[in-house]
Amino acid sequence: MSSNTTARTARRRTLRIAAAALTAAAALTLTACNDSDANASKPAAGAESNGGGSSAGAQDSGAKADPAAKGGTDAGAAGKQSSGGHAANGDRAGGVERCHTSGLEASFATGEDAAPDPNAGGSTTTSIVLTNAGDRTCKIGGFAGVDLTSENGGQVWSLARSSAKYGSITLGPGDSTDFTINLGMTDESEEGSYKPAFAVVTPPNETTSLKLEWPWGALVDQRAATHPATFVNPIG
What we know:
Elements: H1 3-41, E1 65-70, E2 92-93, E3 96-97, E4 104-108, E5 124-132, E6 138-141, E7 145-150, E8 156-158, E9 160-162, E10 168-171, E11 176-183, E12 193-194, E13 196-202, E14 210-213, E15 219-220, E16 231-232
Parallel strand pairs: 9-16
Antiparallel strand pairs: 1-9, 2-3, 4-5, 5-11, 6-10, 7-8, 7-13, 11-16, 12-15, 13-14
């Protein structure tokens, strides 16, 4: 092979290598762009859409009961403060630790206007007051779990919650807030009545409870109802 032929062959090999390198670089660039576009269209990990509760209606009331969820105001609920935010699921919200059962006291509001009207059906309410009995500020919001226990202790009614929206409330030491329970009341002598003896209240995100004596009369027994007249509203 002559020197000229050898030179031409070497130049062709050099050109092929250079072309292959340019093609590979272009492919890598295209792949990087496609990956970037695909990632830009995906939601961030852990992002979720917060939906509302169900719209199952309660009898004769402005609120609605959420039948899938088992778990107000009164002059006795002094010191109520609204932050306007959502209830925190973690131990802290905005630098303030959530309220724990051990630092809370619960009581039924039993002031002059606090007693539910036994003749009002599903439009009457009772209030449970939660007081920060600790020495630190805490935050609370959402729904408390409420289980009613009958007089014989064998019939537990885990109340459904309403579909009302809620925020969170900051309580300083000694401050109180409350939540209401819509009641479908009836005469104890009526067939199908349910007479609670106690209300067991579990604050939001807690696993321990506070037990209260039930101060009112009998309820319409709607433990199996789709749209119960007795249900829990959010705190605040």
